[in-house]
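protien #1 (seq + structre)
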Amino acid sequence: MTVTTSASSGAPRPARTRIGTAGVAVGLAMALVLALHIFGGSSSDGSASVPVSVSIDLSRPGARIPRAFLGLSFELSSLSQIARYANSGDFATMLRSLGGGVLRFGGASADTRVAWTDRLTPRPPWASRVLDVGDLRRLRKLATRSDWRVLLTIGLAHYDPRTAAREAAAAKATLGPWLAGIEIGNEPDSYARHNLRAAPWTAAQYNAEVSTYRRAIALLAPGIPLAGPGVSGSAAFKRWGPAEAAAQRPALLTGHHYPLGCRTSPPPTIARLLSQPIRRAEDASLRRYMSVSRAGAIPLRLDETNSVSCGGKAGISDTFASALWAVDYIARAMVAGVAGINFQGNPANCRGYTPVCAPSPQQLARGALRAQPEWYALLLSKELIGDRPVRVIASPSPANVDVIALLSDQGNLHLVIVDDDPPTAKHATVKLHVGRRFGAARILSLTAPSPAASAGVRLGGRALESDGRWRAPARLERRPNRAGVITLDVSPGSAMLVTVASARVPPIGAPGPATG
């Protein structure tokens, strides 16, 4: 069993802990267990299900999940098209269904294909797309209709501080309060590898160029929040993040995450995406990110993430497996202390990674977008906004199950349970030892025919409606609290949000585990 723990600072640490059935041996002095991972295969004893026993400790809740935690990320080359959805289609409605969030526009196209134009700035010969103030006006309308703010990437690869300043000033004037910040460059740690800078290319050189950009921007539009460095992963962030924090003191540190590479050996598969090694690697990645964030006292946003790099892989990124991965990773990022997360997408490519897409060019033009499996992961996760992570303790089990617990301000307990086992595996019987202070549980299930399914995803038994709305069922499945224990049957290849109502609301920080 792998248990993810967090010290009092909130930073997760992996630990190997054996917990006996007669008692709970934690052995984590001054540590807070915020999530658990129970990995393995089906039970080998011939039983009908695999037992998982879980206890919750409410004594030291973590930091509150920010309101704008959830987000989407698109290539800057998509901005003009997406901004037009302010006037047509279902995208604004879909965004509102998630509550407030952050739309990030960046990607490789921000450095290589898209250029700013205005009356002083002609289109440069290298640009295949342009961005102008009309696009920003339409984007503001979309932001206003959806209540989502905008994180905008300004290209650095084609070095031009004066044009960058004019673009930033136009963004500030046009987007106003909807501008969450400006990133300068996309994955600058990769510039030399992509022949955008001569090697050696270092964080110090990058920061010198960013400083010049910032001075130019400050002359035309002072006070714009800076985000960065937007590097390709946590290993690069360990090298570039401290320099960014020290030299720029940005309002927000940013970085990217893809659990599977498009050109790795062995190649990406559903089994790998939902595997123990990937979970361990992701927990280590989150620790690297948050160590820099906490050292610099600057919040971190994972402003670009998804399942497989290079646009995704059909048969993985467009399947229910991506939703199972997303639910689990979102919850673990919350536990780790991340300030927000943006899922990368391409609305023109339903076969790659994307939470939303249009099946045809005609539907793309008019904004008739459909929800991909990952969208349902976002809908489930929005119920956790404003909660505070709490400690989870579990007994050993061979099931491939994740359990993450959070406490709402109303005193209700939320548990995210993800079973990543294949459909042929046995069900898990999860016994939640929540104590008598809680009442019955309501279950919002995320299901599909199989992890490999690209259709048939349902949240609470329901799909999105034609206008982009998702309506929760009037009645959810319930499970009683019997003598402090709630028993759940968890199907392999599924996820659920379990809401346990508070029968007697304890004050935040009330001592002791909820073990009955």
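ok now protien #2
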Amino acid sequence: MSNGVRTSNVLLTRRGLMEQGGVMTLTTALFGVAPALASDTKTGPKFATDGPFNRSTVIEIARALAKKPFQAPQDKLPEQLTKLTYDQYRDIRFKPDRAIWAKTGLPFQMELFHSGFYFKDPVEVALVDNGQARHVAYDPDMFTFGPLVPKPMPQGDFGFAGIRIHAPINRKDYYDEVCVFQGASYFRAVGRGQVYGLSARGLAIKVADPEGEEFPSFRAFWVEAPSMKSDSLVIYALLDSQSCSGAYRFTLSPGLPTRMDVEVSLFPRVALGKLGLAPGTSMYYFSDNSRHDIDDFRPQVHDSDGLLMQTGRNERIWRPLANPARLQISAFADTGPRGFGLMQRDRSFDDYEDLESSFERRPSLWIEPVGDWGAGAVTLVEIPSNSEIHDNIVAYWAPKTPIPANSEYNFAYRTHWGLDPDPPPGTVIVAATRSGRANIAAPSAERLFVIDYVAAAAPGANPAPAPTPLPMPKANVTASVGKISDVSIRVNDKINGWQLSFHLDPANETSIELRSTLAFDDNRPVETWVYRWTA
């Protein structure tokens, strides 16, 4: 990332790092994990300790924590771990037979990530069963250390780097990774048949702020033991940062989509005026609409290609993503939003031609608010990037009114990790956006935009051809400045949909907000297309 925006220390590269990790298991019949280390333990748990546990335990810890000045984690990893290189860290692997609940036949298993490399702050973990929490202590015997890792490994209960959850989401006889929590407050999940792509965060503070972004971190996790018939797993998390503390409750339900119900209580130390709720973070490098001198064999490279919004007025808005020349922030004011999220809409291998990355199998992330979130704005941050290794896209809800210091702020939402949320059958959605120079014969600043539309399929299916014969809509295209001309709408029989085209003359403008709508005689719902053109 560039333009003075601080980046998170979550990943060195977008591939591979979160695929490695370790697990801690317990051997007691109740928890299935090993007891804490003996006298060589140098540190110990401050939050995820042994003792009674109920639904309000983490809330009370967060409330008490917020009454004190912020204190960064004081426990330091041994130097041997902090100096691990990327390749050395990847050479630390979890022993599969030591997974929590691995030998119980329960519908979930849990593994823990080893600390080290970028992941230097301890993350505490406890298991909860029958109202009792038991701390999970670090033990190097839970991991294999490859030839690249310096030995011997240090002893001590210095925590973990995060957790990952496995479940038989694709096959009844195999536990695939479903969800990962690692790095600051980042987490990500996949739906059935998908691979990891974009991430979510517990909280975003001061995104793209000149003073630098603040990255709250999950300091501890409590994971409830599932029953034999459980189709969901409950995870509690304690968040802390300079500005606030928070208590989170995640209910994970694997499938297509994989759902996570999120309940949050925030306790601000200071007034939170630059706050992002339910943030998603993704990668957009280039697509059909935006190559900009990129020399690459692939047609497109991105984890997400658009921001989808369902406003409180029930307007469905599609905003194609961009890799801009300069940092740009877009805010879409709303009251009581019904949903928003970063979508991966192109689902064919031919869209990417990348056998390794499988971009067509990466999940979309849809945020569904629970209750009335009031006034605010869906905010989109697009950061210039010259590589696919950077997560340069952030989207979140920004409340209009700052949250006062020393208060309590509660909200809830559901995340859907899978495909686009199902619109009503027949809804006309944007299938593709393309642009280029309008006058090929001579140099010109005039731009040509071409937008394809199709009718959405029945719920649970990908977009399908609309019924024929197709009705002809009326098109309306507007621009904040500049001049729109040559607006044309016609049937696109290649996709059994419609194609809208128009010219934009930007004149001397450097930034223009574009908007297009289609109107059918039968008043069928249509996505509104919005886009920011920049010179």
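DSSP finds three helices and 33 strands in the chain.
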